[in-house]
Predict the structure.
Amino acid sequence: MNKIALHAVTLLGLAFFSLPVAHSADNFTLEPSHTSVIFGVSHLGFSYTYGRFNEVAGSYALDKENPAASQFQFSINASSIDTNDAKRDEHLRGPDFFNVKQFPAITFQSTEVATQQNEAGETVYEVTGDLTIHGVTRKVILPLRLLKEGQGMQGDTRTGFLCEKHIMRTEFGMTNMVPAIGDEVAVTISFEGVKQ
């Protein structure tokens, strides 16, 4: 090997070993039986009506060494809305509210992830992403508080998160019966993901 070729190989080797090491993320899938999406909204100022969505799917990738490389994606079957009143639920599925025939899914796809510690010393994933409801997409930040990571009862590895968020339904084109039915909706999301 001549000196020029040897020099080129040496430079190539140095370049390779000076590249940043890629951190592999851990992939998780939501466990439906331990995933809840609950909401509450004011009813004429007298009380709050609470409901939930019974069909939620999603997955996420956690990179602890490089949180910015983490990703989250969730999908909710809008027709699975359940407020413990069949007549009201059918109204909510209709064109006055979610219009599930035209917009069957509520989705969230992360675009940016950062972490911080809260006052209790817990890790909070500040997840920026696109939330689509009623066919309208808005940029939101979901504060996902890491509750626990470890081994589940079946010997699997899992993580658990809690998110509390307020959204304005009129920002997603759901303007019917405001202000009698509140504009601000309090949403609580709790989920466990099982490592794949």
The first strand starts at residue 26 and ends at 30.
